[in-house]
């Protein structure tokens, strides 16, 4: 409202200035493209300049080799059967394409780290309702030393951060856009994040608590909030079943892990 007189004045006096303003407003696309291109190239250069592999990285590569040789069951008797399955499975897919275990592991992490830049853009742009801020956040994420380091080593964190950020973005979309189906996507993506690191299971605690609190405090939107809660949990359950089938993980793996945890708590 306040800017309308100024905009009309610019149109009447200097149309070329309005054209420059419009180009600036839509310059976020070029900024995002720069962040993705430069961020991906910088990660590849960083690994080329100083290749390294940690003790955990060696373990993940061993898990991927076992998965490729004997499937999911081969992991159950290994020394690290507790490791979430997404990273070993992803590395084994690259090995099926002819890559070595090490090259596949680096490719998975560099790709996840680069896609994380786009995920940060989506989350920040949706949260602040400003794509320019999202593009600036993406450019910042492209060169944060901690993010870069996680992307050039064989670690689980890049996949975890990628799907965690996407789950939060979908949850914000569901809240802001009043579209309940975003919540189903948030549940499925949160399950993917949990397949990278178990810490993502906290989303299945805190997001339902947030929705339950909103359900109690905002009586006018109880129907919409109830649907959001139901679809988030259904998205996690149904998406989890489908993803487990895709990865070749039997459902007994989860039930045995859950009962084992409960025995440990009540033991």
Automatic annotation (TrEMBL):
Q: PANTHER family, alphabetically? A: MANNOSYLTRANSFERASE YKCB-RELATED (PTHR33908), MEMBRANE PROTEIN (PTHR33908:SF11)
Q: Which residues form the Glycosyltransferase RgtA/B/C/D-like domain?
A: 86-214
The entry lists its GO molecular-function terms as:
pentosyltransferase activity
Key words of the record? Cell membrane, Glycosyltransferase, Membrane, Transferase, Transmembrane, Transmembrane helix
**Species name for this entry?**
Victivallis vadensis
Q: Please state the protein's primary subcellular location.
A: membrane
Topology with respect to the bilayer: Multi-pass membrane protein
Q: Which GO terms describe its cellular component?
A: plasma membrane
Instruction: Quote the subcellular location field of this record.
Output: Cell membrane
Q: Which InterPro entries match?
A: LipidA_mod_glycosyltrf_83, RgtA/B/C-like
Query: Which protein is depicted?
Result: Glycosyltransferase family 39 protein
Q: Where is the chain membrane-spanning?
A: 27-45, 99-123, 135-152, 158-175, 196-217, 229-254
Q: Which GO terms describe its biological process?
A: lipopolysaccharide biosynthetic process
Claim: Glycosyltransferase is one of the keywords in the record? yes
Task: Name a Pfam family for this protein.
Answer: PMT_2
């Amino acid at each position: 409202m306040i800017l309308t007189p100024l905009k009309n004045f610019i149109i009447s006096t200097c149309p070329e200035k309005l054209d420059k303003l419009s180009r600036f407003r839509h310059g976020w696309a070029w900024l995002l493209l720069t962040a993705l291109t430069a961020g991906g190239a910088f990660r590849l250069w960083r690994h080329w300049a100083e290749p390294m592999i940690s003790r955990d990285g060696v373990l993940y590569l061993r898990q991927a080799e076992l998965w490729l040789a004997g499937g999911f069951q081969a992991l159950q008797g290994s020394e690290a059967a507790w490791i979430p399955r997404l990273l070993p499975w992803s590395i084994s897919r690259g090995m099926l394409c002819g890559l070595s275990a090490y090259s596949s592991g680096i490719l998975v992490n560099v790709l996840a780290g680069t896609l994380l830049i786009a995920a940060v853009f989506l989350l920040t742009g949706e949260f602040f309702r400003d794509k320019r801020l999202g593009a600036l956040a993406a450019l910042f994420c492209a060169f944060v030393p901690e993010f870069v380091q996680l992307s050039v080593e064989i670690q689980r964190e890049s996949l975890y951060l990628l799907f965690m950020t996407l789950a939060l973005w979908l949850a914000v979309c569901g809240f802001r856009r009043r579209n309940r189906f975003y919540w189903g996507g948030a549940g499925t993506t949160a399950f993917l994040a949990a397949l990278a690191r178990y810490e993502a299971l906290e989303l299945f605690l805190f997001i339902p608590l947030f929705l339950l609190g909103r359900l109690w405090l905002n009586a006018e939107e109880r129907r919409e909030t109830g649907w959001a809660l139901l679809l988030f949990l259904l998205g996690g359950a149904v998406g989890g079943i489908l993803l487990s089938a895709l990865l070749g993980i039997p459902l007994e793996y989860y039930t045995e892990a859950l009962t084992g945890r409960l025995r440990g708590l009540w033991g």
